[in-house]
């Protein structure tokens, strides 16, 4: 049974029927679980569309509510995709494309003997990305000498992020093989340039003159007080705040470009673009565009406009006209409501955590479990009497760093990740104080100038307190020296390159990757949310504890965690109702 020639799009029920007819129980069982990832829709209502399936089930989309582990999730995903490809005939077509004798085949034949690793061993897996590029080229009848970034860019909306990254690796690998005899004959002249970042693709239509003016306006809007002695502005906004305001203005201008029958008039500069009429056009585009390039959420749209109002006002322009014009807009009101509470993804994570005792224990012991995992890898090298490979060293360094971060968050205070990465253990103004002969505990402190809420933070990390200090000392002894410039850096978490602190982007990548593998996928900020939710669930109504834990404003705390408190109170009420009956248990 094949659906290769069907006129109507098959559903996942058709795929399930095909798997049963093929007597493939693994595929049938995996396809049956597709409903779990589509809000329990029946298979008959889920289209067998790989673009949709890969979007709903991304490669790194492991959810502990729906699968036992990341490996189990990935296995299910592979089987579902393979079943769709088999039932619809896409797999047979892909096999046929791989067998073609064409320019792609000739190119791959030349490259195969040269696919070797640093040790001089054959490494045919290096060509996997190029084979994916060849498959795509054959699918669209495009030979290798016609391949370029512009061509790939047109297909970008149909590719998931992992496929796109694989194709970019293919171009980079081909650039490295250009000097191999015969390879240039199959490729376009000149090396393939790197692809522009997707975010830049969305806002690239901002004219250069407007982009420069945006930077000037944002600079004015984010400067605070001028010090005549030092002759410079002090206490300006954070780098993230500056970047956000710049992004808001660029997004506004680019939205005007994407609107049909609208010509961007730059004759009056940025001020001439920030009009009530253009604000309506931009918001209308954001409201209607929920699937294509330039998509943003209602919450982001509302926050962007708030930033634009601030920039306008601080540059001497009245933003009230725009604000009044958009007061009644449904999309922006929805964004304002969403912005007044915890984000949907953060709440989903917290609800999952609060609903599982097993996950709670994993969460609270993450610092020790990560330490144990890294230490086992270190011990393995010792037991086998060999030096660790560079890949093993990188993995140990990543996991050990996460262990130390989690120890600070759970046994010290759940500070924001950027504050944690900026902690300094030496030098002038160092703020992470290690144990001494007189004090057998660590202490870290953050001045109000470094804290988002302008409230200073002081927190000790005691010994024999669920191994918090012990994990940090282990990190300092075993892991931190594995960073290239650890001896010269003053930061607790040194950078991979240079003497600065570890970059947020790098740490975020590490944390997301290894928390998924650990069975509790999250971001560092969700770690903070999770800890706060657990505290309030155990102590409903104790807003004072939560304010102290997070060092946040009372209104912010109540706004974000009111649902946790309501949930805990509901459980308490149910217990009282049970007691009214006179029954126990």
Briefly summarize what is shown:
The protein has 28 helices and five strands. With 585 residues, the chain is mainly alpha-helical. The protein is globular and about 75 Å long.
SS content category = mainly alpha
Indicate the low-confidence ranges by residue numbers.
1-7
Shape: globular
Please give the share of residues in helix: 55-70%
The chain-level mean pLDDT equals 90
Largest sheet: 3 strands, antiparallel
Q: Tell how many strands the DSSP assignment holds.
A: 5
With helices defined by DSSP (H or I, 4 residues minimum), what is the helix count?
28
Beta-strand residue fraction = under 5%
The spatial strand order of the largest sheet comes to: 3-4-5
| Span of the ends, CA to CA | 55 Å
**C-alpha-based Rg, rounded:** 28 Å
Notes on the protein architecture:
- The chain has 585 residues and is mainly α.
- The chain contains 28 helices and five strands.
- It has helices at 12-21, 25-32, 34-37, 50-56, 70-88, 90-98, 103-111, 128-139, 149-155, 161-176, 198-203, 208-222, 239-257, 269-273, 276-288, 298-314, 320-325, 330-339, 344-354, 357-364, 366-383, 390-411, 417-421, 468-479, 504-518, 524-538, 543-550, 554-580, and strands at 225-227, 232-234, 432-433, 441-446, 457-462.
- Strands 3-4-5 form a three-stranded antiparallel β-sheet, with no helix packed on it. The protein has a two-stranded antiparallel sheet with strand order 1-2.
- Strand 3 (432-433) and strand 4 (441-446) form a beta hairpin.
- Helix 8 (128-139) packs across helix 10 (161-176).
- It is globular, with a radius of gyration of 28 Å.
- The model is unreliable at 1-7 (pLDDT under 50).
């Amino acid at each position: 049974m094949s659906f290769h020639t069907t006129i109507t799009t098959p559903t996942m029920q058709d795929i399930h029927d095909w798997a049963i007819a093929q007597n493939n129980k693994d595929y049938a069982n995996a396809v049956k679980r597709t409903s779990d990832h589509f809000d329990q829709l029946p298979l008959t209502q889920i289209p067998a569309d790989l673009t949709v399936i890969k979007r709903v089930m991304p490669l790194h989309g492991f959810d502990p509510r729906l699968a036992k582990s990341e490996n189990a999730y990935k296995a299910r995903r592979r089987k579902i995709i393979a079943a769709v490809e088999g039932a619809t005939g896409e797999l047979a077509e892909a096999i046929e494309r791989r067998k073609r004798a064409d320019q792609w085949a000739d190119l791959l034949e030349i490259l195969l003997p040269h696919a070797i690793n640093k040790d001089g061993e054959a490494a045919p897996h290096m060509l996997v990305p190029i084979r994916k590029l060849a498959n795509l080229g054959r699918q669209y009848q495009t030979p290798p000498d016609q391949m370029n970034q512009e061509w790939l860019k047109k297909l970008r909306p149909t590719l998931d992020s992992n496929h796109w990254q694989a194709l970019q690796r293919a171009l980079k690998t081909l650039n490295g093989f250009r000097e191999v005899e015969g390879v240039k004959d199959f490729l376009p002249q000149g090396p393939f340039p790197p692809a522009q970042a997707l975010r830049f693709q969305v806002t690239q239509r901002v004219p250069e003159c407007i982009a420069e003016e945006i930077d000037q306006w944002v600079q004015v809007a984010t400067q605070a007080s001028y010090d005549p002695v030092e002759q410079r502005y002090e206490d300006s906004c954070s780098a993230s705040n500056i970047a956000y305001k710049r992004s808001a203005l660029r997004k506004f201008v680019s939205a005007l470009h994407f609107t049909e029958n609208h010509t961007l008039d730059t004759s009056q500069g940025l001020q001439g673009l920030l009009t009530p009429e253009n604000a309506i056009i931009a918001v209308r585009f954001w409201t209607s565009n929920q699937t294509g390039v330039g998509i943003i959420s209602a919450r982001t749209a509302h926050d962007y406009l708030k930033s634009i109002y601030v920039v306008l006002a601080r540059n001497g322009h009245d933003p009230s006209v725009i604000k009044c014009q958009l007061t009644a807009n449904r999309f922006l009101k929805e964004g304002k409501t969403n912005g007044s509470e915890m984000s949907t993804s953060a709440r989903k994570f917290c609800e999952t955590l609060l609903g599982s005792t097993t996950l709670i224990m994993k969460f609270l012991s993450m610092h020790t479990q990560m330490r144990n995992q890294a230490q086992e890898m270190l011990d393995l090298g010792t037991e086998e009497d060999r030096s660790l490979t560079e890949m093993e060293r990188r993995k140990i360094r990543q996991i050990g760093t996460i262990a130390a971060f989690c120890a600070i968050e759970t046994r010290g205070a759940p500070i924001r990740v950027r504050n944690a990465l900026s902690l300094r253990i030496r030098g002038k103004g160092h703020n992470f104080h290690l144990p001494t002969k007189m004090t057998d505990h660590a202490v870290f402190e953050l001045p109000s100038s470094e804290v988002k809420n302008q409230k200073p933070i002081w927190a000790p990390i005691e010994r024999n307190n669920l191994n918090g200090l012990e994990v940090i000392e282990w990190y300092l002894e075993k892991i931190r020296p594995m960073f290239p410039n650890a001896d010269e850096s003053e930061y607790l978490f040194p950078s991979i390159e240079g003497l600065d602190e570890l970059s947020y982007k790098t740490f975020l990548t590490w944390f997301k990757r290894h928390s998924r593998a650990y069975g509790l996928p999250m971001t560092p900020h969700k770690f903070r949310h999770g800890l706060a939710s657990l505290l309030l669930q155990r102590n409903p109504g104790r807003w004072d504890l939560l304010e102290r834990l997070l060092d946040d404003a009372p209104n912010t705390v109540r706004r974000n965690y009111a649902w946790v408190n309501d949930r805990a109170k509901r459980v308490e009420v149910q217990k009282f109702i049970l007691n009214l009956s006179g029954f126990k248990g």
